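[job 0412] stage=fold_complex status=start
inputs:
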Amino acid sequence: MMELVGSIMVLLGAVFHFSAGLGMLRMPDAYTRMQAGTKASTLGNTLILLGLAIYHPGWGLKLLIIIFFVLMTNPISSHALARAAHGIRIPMAGQTGIDALRDARRKPGDSS
Amino acid sequence: MIHRLLVAVVVASFGLVFASLVVGYTEQSSLRPLAESYVRLVPHELGAPNVITGILLTYRGFDTLGEVAVLFMVAASVGLVLGTRRARRSASAKDRPDETRSSSEVVRTAAEILVPLICIFAAYIIMNGHLSAGGGFQGGAVIASGVLLMLLAFPQYQPNLDFLSITESVAGAIFVLAGIAGLIMAGGFLDNRILPLGQFGAFFSAGAIPLLSVCLGIKVGCELSVILERFRPQKL
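[job 0412] stage=fold_complex status=done
writing structure:
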């Protein structure tokens, strides 16, 4: 039973990884590609490692530490990359309407 | 069109080459004589459960010393090449306005949490080199990744290069001295039996292998950190 649950979770994680890959191919610009890759692969990694922890309860603690590490690093590195991309003005896709970072950077009282 | 055809031909020929590798592959069920003698000798003679580290730090310790020397030469030549560029740049950088963006708060906070974790993990890898997967080179590379994170998250962070070079020299000297001690007190250069072998599989066991691992880890970490620091774009 535990093995079945673990296997299903690993499979679910693989599905999320597949959606991450699909997003990298299908999304229109750098930022949306980045968020597709980050969110889906973080969840996919977490699910796969949790599934493994259920499958092999003996590895549980080490896998939890790895999950913590992935949760800490993956979103933050993408955050840094996206900010850097925004900083060197990589263009957004045409339909993007809101740029909160630019609005936040703009100094108060500066109307340009 | 011709270009695509060419690419397809290249890919197909690569596929053929690798297919021949895969088709002819049969898994070896028994060890080769050399591997078998190593597998038999290392736990018995050196007291190290991890055969690879046992081989790398004793039987082939001289080879490992050569690898470290190569890394040292890389660090020295990087310093030689990039050091002159830095001096020129810092002179012109003074009248240039500071264009670099500071890293965001998220990155800084994460670095503060992650750098200690990375250092602990590096120490774990180095100190468990004789018991499980790991060793000096890997742990040193992990230390350098922590330093790289510091350099990225805090652009004004300045590692103390003098301290790094002194630490690295001391670690290297201890490594060579341990090797010479093996020559005098045990069977040969870098023989690990200068210290008691201890209980098989314990944390302090396998003679001098943990000591050599630590020296290697410190040395490699310092060298890679110096290389990373040299490659950093300067803003003064």
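[job 0412] summary: Helices of chain A lie at 2-26, 30-55, 60-87, 100-105.
[job 0412] exit 0
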